[in-house]
Design a protein that fits this description.
By secondary structure, the protein is an alpha/beta fold. The protein is about 30% helix and about 20% strand. It has a domain at about 5-95 and about 235-310: HUPs (Rossmann fold, 3-Layer(aba) Sandwich). The chain is built from eight helices and 14 strands.
């Protein structure tokens, strides 16, 4: 059986220490599931199941204007076709506005936020936000909310990439937690969601490595626990560009009616994660591939690199993993 899996585990409050391993996969329905997102989902799933943990599924649809009609359902069907079993109901960010509002109220009460009237166009050439509106918006009209960031490094140990540090004030600046159009920013939403769901381990793509220190700052400001992070290599096209869902990468949902194709793609994904499926696993059902991969899984097999080039249009095997 694939898809939602029943669970008797109780919910964990945002400030409580979760019991055991709780992982998650949180796709954005701005497009369909593709090879890059399957790679990340498999890494997250294998890490959770090999630890005997729970694996949650969350749709990060807080930015409704960017959502592609029907993409959320197609993502769920594709994940089910590839044998993923998630624990509990699917959580949707679009249904969690009161949680984000409460977090904003807490930050506002602590004096951690300020209103900013700057537009994206005005900041297009800036590598970091320079603090333009720290003393008040420059003009009337719609404003975003930014978190005041003090100088100093944020450091954490990534389970794949190793020790990582970033001076958020110097490299990012005061960052947005609510946009001028009222939409909650990803940084705040993901921090609130992970804490409320009791997530203890986050396995995701290395394109989000630089986003982690700002998220840790938010966790500290909101007195929330920081999960363990592991950023796996991001699969990119042969020319180095991201396999973005919005740039025409081949969706995997159409494979849902072909279990043998799903099994072959899953086995290839395991190889890209550094595993070595035995020859006798060829032709096995998806369940058998998952069972073998869960038993064989170790993050130590995942190469310590940020990008993994591969041409999804090619039928040839992916290039060797260079550590």
């Amino acid at each position: 059986m694939s898809g939602a899996r029943s669970s008797t585990a109780t919910g964990t409050t945002a400030t409580a220490e979760p019991a055991g391993y709780v992982g998650r996969f949180a796709p954005t329905p701005s497009g369909d599931l593709h090879l890059g997102s399957l790679y990340t989902a498999a890494a997250s799933y294998l890490d959770a199941r090999s630890a005997g943990g729970r694996w949650l599924l969350r749709l990060e649809d807080v930015d409704r204007p960017r959502e592609l009609p029907g993409a959320a359902d197609r993502i769920l069907r594709a994940l089910a076709a590839f044998g993923f079993e998630w624990d509990g109901p699917v959580v949707r960010q679009s249904e969690r506005a009161p949680l984000y509002a409460a977090a904003l109220d807490e930050l506002r009460a602590a004096g951690a936020l300020f209103a900013c009237s700057c537009s994206r166009r005005e900041r297009a050439d800036a590598e970091r936000y320079p603090g333009t509106c720290r003393d008040g918006p420059l003009r009337p009209g719609p404003t975003a909310l930014r978190l005041r960031v003090d100088p100093g490094f944020v450091e954490f140990d990534d389970r794949v990439q190793g020790r990582f540090r970033q001076d958020v004030a110097a490299q990012v600046g005061d960052f947005t937690v609510q946009r001028r159009d009222g939409i909650i920013a990803y940084a705040l939403a993901v921090v609130v969601d992970d804490a409320e769901q009791g997530v203890t381990h986050v396995v995701r793509g290395a394109d989000l490595l630089d986003s982690t220190p700002p998220q840790i700052l938010l966790q500290r400001r909101l007195s929330l626990a920081t999960p363990s992070y592991a950023h796996v290599p991001l699969i990119v096209a042969a020319d180095g560009s991201k396999l973005a869902k919005t740039r025409g990468s081949e969706p995997l949902e159409w494979r849902a009616e072909d279990p043998s194709a799903c099994a072959r793609i899953l086995a290839a994904t395991c190889r890209r994660l550094g595993l070595s499926p035995p020859p006798d696993l060829q032709g096995e059902k998806i369940f058998e591939i998952w069972r073998w991969a869960i038993a064989a899984w170790s993050l130590k097999t995942v190469p310590r690199r940020l990008f993994f080039p591969w041409d999804p249009a090619s039928q040839s095997p992916p290039p060797p993993l260079i550590t």
